Amino acid sequence: MAGKVLLVEDEQRIREVIADYFQSDGWIIVEAEDGEQALEQFELHYPDLIILDIMMPHMDGLDVCRHIRKHSGVPIILLTAKSADSDKVLGFELGADDYVTKPFSPRVLLARANSLMKRVTENYEPQGHRISFGSVVLNTLTRRMELDGKPVELTPKEYELLLLLVRNKNRVIPRDTLLSRIWGIEFEGESRVVDSHIKKLRAKLGPESGHIRTVIGVGYQFEP
């Protein structure tokens, strides 16, 4: 699934190579070479996907990600030379959807982008696409949530996490299962990514947050 991608990378040669691969696959490319330009282009172009380098001048990618997540749930793939799990965890806690470590194959990056966009738009259901609990309504066609009839912006990961819990009501789902199912990764002994997203979900659910129950030492459970 092609669309409009905002490519944020301070090294021109890397931008050119990535842009060539994505354009050949039908994507529309918008480029930025630093964090400040990235925010400007984001406001101008409303991209379908952001590929975001972490190490950049003026404003790094993590700050850009943090700012964008205050306003939008657009899918974000982080690019970085860092490979430590702690860096990945921080990126995911800020709301990133995927993570690619340099050096990487542009072909693999394109495949990851298409896979992410497929996950974001799949599971369309012509009937029964509204799931309700309390004053919350989830629409699986638009992947949006309403609380008391008002729209609430969820990031792709927050939406997928809530939907997984709701569709497995009354079942306790371990943290490592949530990591594997939602992020497609596993951090041994690391649960902050899941806990951070649950905390944000509860804040957005407001008075309905009590439906998500913490099972100490195990994971989480959705109770209707």
Please supply descriptive tags for the structure shown above.
four-stranded antiparallel sheet; 224 residues; 22% strand; 8 helices; single chain; five-stranded parallel sheet; alpha/beta
- Strand count: 12
Strand order of the largest sheet: 2-1-3-4-5
The residue-averaged pLDDT reads 86
- Order of helices and strands, N to C? EHEHEHEHEHEEEEHEHHEE
How much strand content do the residues show? 15-25%
What is the strand and helix layout of this fold?
Layout: E1 4-8, H1 12-24, E2 28-32, H2 35-45, E3 49-53, H3 61-69, E4 76-80, H4 85-93, E5 98-101, H5 106-121, E6 130-133, E7 136-139, E8 144-147, E9 150-152, H6 156-167, E10 172-174, H7 175-183, H8 192-205, E11 212-215, E12 219-222
Helix pairs in contact: 1-5, 2-3, 4-8, 6-8
Task: Summarize the structure in words.
The structure is a single chain. This protein has 224 residues and is of the alpha/beta class. The chain is 42% helix and 22% strand. The radius of gyration is 18 Å and the shape is globular. The model is unreliable at 123-127 (pLDDT under 50). Residues 128-224 form the OmpR/PhoB-type domain. This is Response regulator transcription factor. Residues 128-224 bind DNA. Keywords: DNA-binding, Phosphoprotein, Transcription, Transcription regulation, Two-component regulatory system.
